[in-house]
Write a structure and sequence with these properties.
With 316 residues, the protein is mostly helical. It is built from 14 helices and 2 strands; from the N terminus they run ααααββαααααααααα.
Length: 316
């Protein structure tokens, strides 16, 4: 039992940090531009596919650098020649633009790489056991994912709060006209932030694509969860996104690990349920079956009782 708890906790933290890496870019983009980028998870998918192609020729480690940089450039181009053009028509036009962009990227991925998963594997140097927990060997790559995610959070937080660039970015969020009057190019700042958010999504795809699966459905699988994380954490809050990511990661992991229904728990205490009861099917549901809807249930509770999220500064 203790082994299951420890392993599930580690797996939940790793999954939560991957969600944070993906949601942090979306949080940055919303903080700066007020736009919920529906194509953000598609950049995550492109990061995985780019890394797969690059690693075939030069290996995983160059791909870890090249793929996020490529996604950052693509993201900056999307902002410069896409979002900036439709910005004059309001936020609805921006949302529709990113929504359509997500469909285009999805179709292009299927045209280039097909509908089946690609053989994007964990690098051999990290495809080993780092340590053992009781009788379970824990893979080194999951610790590597954890280290990259935590390192990214520390660097990002330090840049935004301790450097001149971070101060300019935060000032452009609340007082863009004043920043422009001080001689800073606010549209260029927006473009760079959008590119940075896209690069972070690409980095998440590089380290997450081989740990899980790289296929055309991966953006849809995580896309909705990322929006849940951003809303629960609080729109525009990096710390809130980290807390919400870890919370959802741990809840979903433990839900799958402890696959026992409420009916079984009641039966262990000698409580029997009439098979003809209308509640029997609901009580027979296991946490693993309920795990996919738990984040959305938390989303509803957040919107009802705390619309600003855990640490948000504005309402959703």
């Amino acid at each position: 039992m203790l082994e299951l708890v420890v392993v599930s906790t580690l797996n939940g933290v790793v999954y939560g940090l991957l969600l944070f890496m993906l949601s942090s870019g979306l949080t940055l983009i919303f903080s700066m531009m007020g736009v919920l980028n529906f194509a953000h998870a598609s950049f995550y998918m492109l990061g995985a596919y780019f890394a797969y192609e690059i690693s075939r020729f030069v290996g995983f480690w160059p791909a870890l650098v090249i793929a996020p940089l490529a996604l950052g450039v693509i993201g900056a181009m999307v902002e410069r020649w896409g979002l900036r053009v439709v910005h004059r028509h309001g936020h609805v036009a921006e949302l529709l633009f990113t929504f359509g962009l997500a469909f285009i990227i999805g179709e292009l991925v299927q045209l280039v790489w097909g509908r089946l998963p690609v053989d994007y594997r964990v690098p051999a140097a990290l495809n080993v056991s780092l340590f053992s927990i009781f009788s379970s060997a824990y893979p080194a790559y999951r610790i590597f994912m954890m280290a990259i995610s935590l390192g990214m959070f520390v660097i990002l937080y330090a840049v935004l709060t301790r450097t001149r660039v971070g101060l300019i970015i935060q000032a452009a969020l609340t007082h863009p006209n004043m920043v422009a009057m001080l001689g800073h190019n606010v549209p260029r700042i927006f473009m760079l932030v959008f590119g940075l958010g896209s690069a972070l999504a690409g980095l998440a795809g590089v380290i997450g694509g081989n740990a899980f699966i790289t296929d055309p459905g991966m953006a849809q699988t995580l896309g909705a969860i990322v929006f849940v994380v951003v809303v629960i954490g609080g729109l525009g809050s990096l710390n809130g996104a980290l807390i919400a990511s870890l919370l959802i990661g741990l809840i979903q992991t433990f839900s799958v690990a402890f696959n026992i229904s409420l009916a079984q728990i009641l039966a262990s205490f000698g409580v029997t349920i009439d098979p003809a009861s209308g509640w029997i099917e609901l009580l027979r549901l296991s946490p693993a079956q309920l795990a996919p809807i738990v984040p959305y249930f938390l989303l509803v509770l957040t919107l009802v009782f705390r619309p600003r999220g855990l640490l948000g500064s504005r309402e959703t």
